[in-house]
Amino acid sequence: MKRVLATGLVLGGVALLALAAWVAVRSARYIASEVYPPRQPVERPPAEGAFAGLRDVSFQDRDGLLLKGWYLPPRNGALVILVHGLSGNRTQLLPEARFLAQAGYGLVLFDLGAHGESAGTVSTYGDREAGQVMAAVDFAVRQPEVDARRVGALGFSLGGYSVLKAAAGDPRLKAVVVEAAAVAPAQALQDELGHWGPLGLWPALTVMKRAGVDVNAVQPARDMAALSGRPVLLVAGTEDPWVPDAALDNLLGQGRGPWEKWRVPGTGHGDYLLASPEEYPRRVLGFFSRFL
């Protein structure tokens, strides 16, 4: 009996150690896929129709990181910078770019650092990416066709965090659409991995620390408060598990607008145009037409 009990205890201990190792490895791999995102190929759309005049461009952020993108001159003087999500690239927002271009807006679409054709190896949840958005603003306001008083931005997910933080520090961004980005990355990390306790969080934080990523550097509520008085449209799908309505309301409670939110019916993290092919362009174009 004692031998059976001892064997059971040993096997139980081995099982617990195996479970702990599995949790730690899973956590580290999960975060590594976000900090070191896989690159997707960039396919250039034909420079015809709405995209007639689209040009390949490159510019550097203030740390010297080379960023690749496209520029389309405006027909109405106003320009919108489009910023993609994690593991995407500038092509992710081509559908939005198309209806904006058809309405006369100029465009800057670019690959964030560590994505697409841009330099860099580390993604930072919108921290360094905010500086890359500011570099896109630097590029945009130098273009002779652009009215520097009419520059806005639209960012999705990682791009949303980046746009929100950039706008908080750069008054040249006159109006911003922030999509699928409301919960602070530190809180999202806790929600995603915290149920495993330290075994879930410590390996993830170790990966981030080694990559030089500060999970607390991006604070959407703080950035929203800094935008008091500037127009913001918050967009998220009604079925998006990462953007609860309470998080959007928390952002709206940080000050006074003109701020508004829209939950896109029947969709999750993205695919807004597919879910609402008429209402989504109407809302976005209406927002920029009022404030740019």
UniProtKB/TrEMBL annotation:
The keyword Hydrolase applies. Keywords: Hydrolase. The lineage of its organism: Bacteria, Pseudomonadati, Myxococcota, Myxococcia, Myxococcales. SUPFAM superfamilies: alpha/beta-Hydrolases. It holds the Pfam family Peptidase_S15. It comes from Corallococcus terminator. Residues 94-191 form the Xaa-Pro dipeptidyl-peptidase-like domain. Coiled coil: none annotated. This is Alpha/beta fold hydrolase. One of its GO terms (molecular function) is carboxylic ester hydrolase activity.
